[in-house]
Amino acid sequence: MAHSTNTSPPTAGHTGLKREVGVIGLLWASVGAIIGSGWLFGAQKAAAAAGPAALLSWGIGAAAIVLLAMVHAELGGLFPVAGGTARYPHYAFGGFAGMSFGWFTWLQATTIAPIEVQAMINYARHWSWAGGLLHKDLTLTGAGFVVAAALLAVFVAINFLGVRLLAHTNSVATVWKVAVPILTIFALGITEFHGSNFSVHGFAPDRAKGVLAAISTSGVIFALLGFEQAIQWAGESRNPRRDIPRAVLGSVVIGTIVYVMLQVVFIGALPPSTFAGGWKALDYPGISGPFAGLATLIGLGWLATILFVDAVISPAGTGLVYITSSSRVTYGLSRNGYAPQALQFTDRRSVPWLGLVIAWVAGVLCFLPFPSWQRLVGFITSAVVLMYAGAPLAFGVLRKRMPGMERSYRLPGGSIISPLAFAVASLVIYWAGWDTLWRLGMAIVIGYVLLGGYSAYAAAKGVPNAPRMDFKAGQWLPVYLVGMGLISWQGSFGEGSLGNLPLWWDILVVAAFALVIYYWALAVALPTEEIERNIRGVEVTDAGGH
Question: pLDDT tens digit string along 179-197?
Answer without folding.
Answer: 899 999 999 999 999 999 9
